[in-house]
Amino acid sequence: MQYKVFVFLWRWWAARNKANAGDKKVCPAEICNSVAFYLMEFDKLFNPEQPVTRSGIQKWKPPHADCYKINVDASFNPETKKEGWGFIARDCNGRFLEGGARNIIRAASALQAEALGILRSIERVAELGMTRIIIETDAEILGRALTSEEYDRGSDGGLFRQIRNLMDSQFVFCSVSVCPRICSSVADKLAAHGASAINAGSCVFMSQIPNFVYDLVSSDMPRANK
Questions:
Q1: pTM across the whole model
Q2: Which domain holds residue 32?
Q3: Can you tell me the mean pLDDT for 99-107?
Q4: Where are the alpha helices (DSSP H) in the chain?
Q5: What is the four-CA torsion angle of 112, 113, 115, 121, rounded to 10 degrees?
Q6: What domain count does the chain have?
Q7: Is 51 domain-assigned?
């Protein structure tokens, strides 16, 4: 809790200094969005990726034969206002089954952008008939929010409950796993694509591997890790 207060005071002080210097005044909502962004980044910093093992850098792992793995990530920058999310669905052989990217016109925080990505992604895979899935995210706070009621009283509590209800009603099996950032590199790239290359508010679904993530998907294939 203390570091949350420190981050708030830091962003408030920065906004105050900019206003005193003649820059545009920052509204309270923008300060809160900035705080949420840095809290997410600090959370990832304080929970670093697992160290390199003897076999090399840790990679994405395929799901069991009876499941599909859905990796979701978001791109959120309160300074540039370029926001988006992306996802990829793969089977036990690492094959690309479906991907998607969306441009977000305005998300209230990085956490909200990540949650929206998961909601829309699992809506899509449910439409495709996938009933046993593993959702993988590199956002630890979001992982806790979707596996408990810890954050239900916050501003995004309704969104978290909506996701959990969808998980319960649309899938025979659905679990949430938090992974190191390096294991979600494809979803990260798709999220960046959604934020920067897709028209405002638009969404694109992909049934074939787009060229800009082809090498990343190939390197995640089980045979590439041997």
A1: 0.75
A2: 2-46
A3: 94
A4: 2-20, 28-46, 110-127, 140-147, 157-170, 185-196, 214-220
A5: 160
A6: 2
A7: no
Closest by alpha carbon to 35, among 84, 108, 104? Answer: 108
Is 60 exceeded by the pLDDT of residue 72? yes
Both 84 and 34 in one domain: the answer is no
Label residues 174-185 b or e (16+ Cβ within 10 Å = b). Answer: bebebbbeebbb
Q: Rounded to an integer, what distance in angstroms lies between the CA atom of residue 78 and that of residue 94?
A: 34
Q: What is the per-residue pLDDT across 162-187, written as a single tens digit (0 to 9) for each?
A: 999 999 999 999 999 999 999 999 99
User: Do residues 36 and 73 share a domain?
Assistant: no
Q: Quick check: helix, strand or coil at residue 104? A: strand
* pLDDT-based confidence at residue 50 (cuts at 50, 70, 90): very low
> Which of 101, 87, 102 has its CA nearest to residue 133?
87
Mark whether 97 and 6 lie in a shared domain: no
CA angle 26/27/32 to nearest 5° reads: 100
Quick check: is 112 in a domain? Answer: yes
pLDDT tens, position by position, 119-136: 999 999 999 999 999 999
Q: What is the bridge-based pairing of β-strands 83-90 and 132-137? A: unpaired
One domain, residues 105 and 17: no
- Amino acid of residue 204: V
